[in-house]
Amino acid sequence: REDFREAKNTLGVILIHDKRWSDAVGVLEPLTRDMLYQTPENAWGNLGWAYLELGKLDQAVDALRRSVAAEPRFCVGSYRLGLALEKKGQPSQAAVALTQALETPEPACKNLQLAWAARARVRFQLGRMEEARSDLEQCVSLDKESRAGKECRSMLQKLK
Fold it and tell me: Comparing C-alpha atoms, which of 147, 34, 109, 110 is closest to residue 12?
């Protein structure tokens, strides 16, 4: 049904998880134009995520910027924007987006372990070693056994 907007967004997320990124774009893109959808940042953010997975980085950056513009506290959108900019080879801009993700005034945003790892990577690329080390330590402190925690521990070892 046309009025099941949240269900469409959820379907888009399921398709992304199922690696059916083009199908996800087909579901999410019309949702971004639906003026009655109450949380457009979700549609834009998930559309950007699908584009990121497809390797369509310009479209990903555009969609994710729209997501964050619609809701500046949407830290997952800022995180994914940082990833897209990192993949585009723009570490300075990626660092800004990742910092925005981690400094969003929502308490849960400080626990985005993958964002700490990503910001450490881009800070490392920028030669900002002490800041990278601090990010890696924060990443590890959140959960040293997760995939991100193990990546952060490995990067910390390389800095020593």
Answer: 34
CA distance to 7, 36, 97, 137, 160, per residue, from 81 (Å): 24, 25, 6, 23, 30
Q: What contacts 44, CB < 8 A, 6 or more positions away?
A: 32, 63, 64, 66, 67, 70, 77
Q: What is the mean pLDDT of each run of 10 residues along the chain (160 residues)?
A: 86 97 97 92 97 98 97 96 98 98 94 97 96 97 96 90
Cβ pair 141, 113 in contact under 8 A: no
Residue 60 phi, psi dihedral angles, 5° rounding: -60, -50
Instruction: Indicate the DSSP class of residue 108.
Output: G
Buried b (16+ CB within 10 A) or exposed e, 55-91: ebbebbbbbbbbbbebbeebbbbbbbbbbbbbeeebb
Number of Cβ within a 10 Å radius of residue 11: 17
Q: Rounded to whole angstroms, how far apart are CA atoms 5 and 11?
A: 10
What six digits make up the tokens of 113? 């372990």
Per-residue pLDDT at 4: 87
CA pair distance 111, 52, nearest whole angstrom: 22
Q: What are the tokens at 32? A: 């971004």
